[in-house]
Request: fold
Amino acid sequence: MDALSFLQDVAGYAQAQAGNSSADRPIRLGTIDPAYAPATFWDGTLPRVRFDGEATISGKMYPVVAPYWPQPGDRVALVPVGTTYLIIGALGPGLATKWTPVTFTNGWGNFGSSWQTAQYRRDHTGRVWLRGVISGGTVGSSAFQLPAGFRPPAQFVTDAVSSGGNPPTLCRLQFNPDGTVVPQQQVGTFVALDHSFDRAP
Reply:
């Protein structure tokens, strides 16, 4: 199914649920208000939209289909529902990024051989993901720093597999709001990075 067919199917379903009030109104495209604060979405503040072909931003706020998290400047598709429109998601990748290699510090590096290299990415909901296996650095020092937009809102720690024993050794992995990632305590021959977290707004 192509993108247009998908949008038409969604619009048809929405119209069937809402009755005739949304019939014969087109699917619309627009841009989320550049001044919209994404963090307020979780408090119930919905975004305004500047529809294509219009010079000003709407005075009305529009509901959103989960799991899309509206971001300022996103290009979005809206379908008619009842007497309003429903934002069904961003056009293009939105918040999502491709996997990007980390830049190592303090002697840390990839474990090598056939092991996954250390990388990070962000999915369409804004959640940050890490993968890979690292080794060789100074325990208690930053292995790398995640860039702005990929950092946690507060410091937290998690455990990480750090040896291939049975059971495997676990070390402490600390994530800081400045983006630094620090392997700590009981680090064995490697540190597995597989983890995810919600980024700071």
Observations:
- The chain has a mean pLDDT of 88.
- Residues 21 and 82 are 5 Å apart (CA to CA).
